[in-house]
Amino acid sequence: MIEETRPANDMRYQGGAFHPDLESGKASGTVRISPAGVCFDSPNGRFELPLEGLQVALGGANDRLVFFTHPDRPDAAIHTADHSVLKHPVLAARPELTAQVGRVQSRQRHARVLVLSVIAALIALIAGVVLAKDRIVESLANSIPTQWEVSLGNTLFEQMIRNEREATDPDLTARLRKITDPLVNGINDSRYPFQFHIIEDPTVNAFAIPGGHVVIHSGLLLAADTPEEVAGVLAHEIAHITRRHGFRSLISSLGLYQVLQMFVGDATSLLAVLANNGAFLLDLKFSRDFEREADAVGWEYLLRANIDPGGMVEFFKTLEAEEKKTLGGLPGGTEKTLSLVSTHPATLERRHTLESKLRRLDRDGAAFHKFDLNYDSFKAGLRSKLHSAPEGTE
């Protein structure tokens, strides 16, 4: 079977026309270009526009259609959505039409460039917003009134402590203050009334609650060897509070659209979201970035308080030793018992970072604060006050 090939000057394009002789003044049909002109043919009628004086232009929604008109027939127009009609050899053979076709094609290119530019701008805008989300979240967290934050923290602490046994012996709390007072006074951040609490829990852990409460497990105090180690942990936890990591984590967990809504709105919606989800602040696990930031800020707090930051490094080593002891030194063990390890990822990486900072620090010539506390005696007193001393702490 031989396929019939239609001559170039007999190419037909689906289109339409406007003409007073057509039913309802318009019709759909086929468009054909010949040396005589542009012809429209349909069951409702046909007519032709001569090539001499023919006008070519774009029209319709988004310049989707190619229109053919003629000044001698102002009441008639032929159009097609097939832009390949502009490449028809009959049109290309006439210089006056070639110039018009060139202008139409140039307009098409400009339109495409404009559309692509708009799309690129939208993509860039969306990407910029996504990349700026962390800064937006931080700005939102920093807009929270401190008094409201402290009030929420007090409420959360009261909810948490109901299920815990707090060690409130006056002698123990007085001895703990020999560590916390120099640290807090050195930090000199008057926004928060920092309060430190010991709860009876054998896991090696401490955590911060927005507004100033820092909770220390008895297991951590018994695992530490020096006041400097405890101060290093507490400086880290205080940094979580001052850098508002709890609020930033909670806000980050929301969708980008909701974050942007709160950013351009007033503080009422933000505070409502935080109040309704406040309980989650007690169980948050911070991201690695927040843990690294807490390490860095806590390090600066120790230096500001003139406390040897080497204690922070030593406690990382204590964590690793306790982990091996708890897991029996078995390879491939998981961090199940040491809560501080499981909630503070990349322990080894962070220790190496702090060790690098410690090597650059001139500790030999520094006169760091000496804690007025016999730490072994403090641990013995703590054990005696516990209802059940954890195994392996003697």
Structural class: alpha+beta
Shape category: rod-shaped
- Bin the helical content: 40-55%
Q: How big a fraction of the residues is strand?
A: 5-15%
Number of E strands? 11
Major beta sheet summary: 7 strands, antiparallel
The sequence of SSEs as H and E is: EEEEEEEHHHHEHEEEHHHHHHHHHH
Strand order of the largest sheet: 4-3-2-1-7-6-5
Oligomeric state, counting identical vs distinct chains: single chain
Low-confidence runs of at least 5 consecutive residues: 1-5, 329-339, 389-394
Radius of gyration: 38 Å
Q: What is the terminal-to-terminal distance?
A: 99 Å
Per DSSP, the total helix count is 15
Report the average pLDDT across residues. 84
Structural notes for this entry:
The protein is of the alpha+beta class. Helices cover 50% and strands 15% of the residues. The protein is built from 15 helices and eleven strands. It has a seven-stranded antiparallel sheet with strand order 4-3-2-1-7-6-5. Strand 1 and strand 2 form a beta hairpin. Helix 3 crosses helix 9, helix 7 crosses helix 12 and helix 12 runs antiparallel to helix 14. The longest helix has 37 residues. The protein is rod-shaped, with a radius of gyration of 38 Å. The N and C termini lie far apart (99 Å).
